[in-house]
Amino acid sequence: MKNILLASTSALFGEDYLAYLKPSIADLFSGADEIIFVPFARPGGISHDDYTKKVADAFSVINIRVTGLHTFEDPAAVVRKAKGFFTGGGNTFLLVKTLHELNLMNVLKEAVEKGAPYLGTSAGSNIGGLTMHTTNDMPIVLPPSLDTMGLVPFNLNPHYLDPDPNSKHNGETRETRIKEFHTQNSMPVIGLREGSWIRVQGETITTEGLFSSRIFEQGRDAYEVAPRNQLLF
C-alpha cells in the first residue's frame, strides 16, 4: 500500500526546519527507526553531507536515524531494502538528472509502490508527479529525461503563489505558466501553497495542511479544494 506525503515546503517562514510537518512525519514513518535521505537537489549548493546532517538533526527529535543515499557504493540495493525515504527540496533539474544518471528513478518508484513510506518536500515532491515540467526551478543542468516517478496521476507546483493585485511585478504569474503548460500537456496540476501537502494512503489521495490547493485541469477553469478532501482523477 502506498504511503506518501508530498509537501510544498520543508519549513514555514520563521519556523525550524520541518517543524510544521513533525506530527505528520511521525505518523508517516511510524514503525520505522531509520530512513534513507536523498540529498541530490542541494538547495543553495549545500553539500550532500551537510544537507544530510541538517535532516538527521531534525529527525533525531522523533528518534529516526537518517543516512544519506550518496554514501553507499550500491545505492540501488539500498533503496530496495530501505524502510523509508525522504527527498528534500532544492533544484529539481539537478535532482532528476542525478536520479536518472544513477538509474535510481524507477528503483525508488518501485520501492515506494511496494509500501516503503516516502516524504517529499518541494523538489522531492515534484518527482512524485508524472513529470517535472511544472517545477519553478532554473534549468541549471539538463536531465536525460523530465519524467519522474508518477506516484500520483498529476503534476505538482510546490510553493504556489496567488497573484498579488498590489504587486508591480510584470512577469507571468504561476497560474499563467500552468495555463501555458496546458496548451501542450493534458495532465492535471496541483498548486501547493506553503503549509499544504498531498497525502497518499493506498489508492486514496487527499489534500492536507493549512490552506486549500489550487487545481488546474486542461480546458477547465482553475478551482480550489479545501484540506482533508479526496482528489479524484
Plain-language structure description:
By secondary structure, the protein is of the alpha/beta class. The chain has one domain (3-230): Class I glutamine amidotransferase (GATase) domain (Rossmann fold), CATH 3.40.50.880. It has helices at 22-28, 48-60, 75-81, 92-101, 105-113, 123-126, 174-181, and strands at residues 3-7, 34-38, 65-68, 85-87, 118-121, 155-158, 189-192, 196-201, 204-209, 213-216, 223-225, 229-230. An eight-stranded mixed sheet has the order 3-2-4-5-1-8-9-12. The protein has a four-stranded mixed sheet with strand order 6-7-10-11. Strand 8 (196-201) and strand 9 form a beta hairpin. Helix 3 (75-81) runs parallel beside helix 5. The protein is globular, with a radius of gyration of 17 Å.
Number of domains: 1
Low-confidence stretches: none
Total number of helices: 7
Rounded mean pLDDT score: 97
CATH-derived architecture: 3-Layer(aba) Sandwich
Question: Can you identify the CATH superfamily?
Answer: Class I glutamine amidotransferase (GATase) domain
Largest sheet: 8 strands, mixed
Count of DSSP E strands?
Answer: 12
The helix/strand class is alpha/beta
The secondary-structure element order is EHEHEHEHHEHEHEEEEEE
What are the SSEs and their pairings?
Layout: E1 3-7, H1 22-28, E2 34-38, H2 48-60, E3 65-68, H3 75-81, E4 85-87, H4 92-101, H5 105-113, E5 118-121, H6 123-126, E6 155-158, H7 174-181, E7 189-192, E8 196-201, E9 204-209, E10 213-216, E11 223-225, E12 229-230
Parallel strand pairs: 1-5, 2-3, 2-4, 4-5, 6-7
Antiparallel strand pairs: 1-8, 7-10, 8-9, 9-12, 10-11
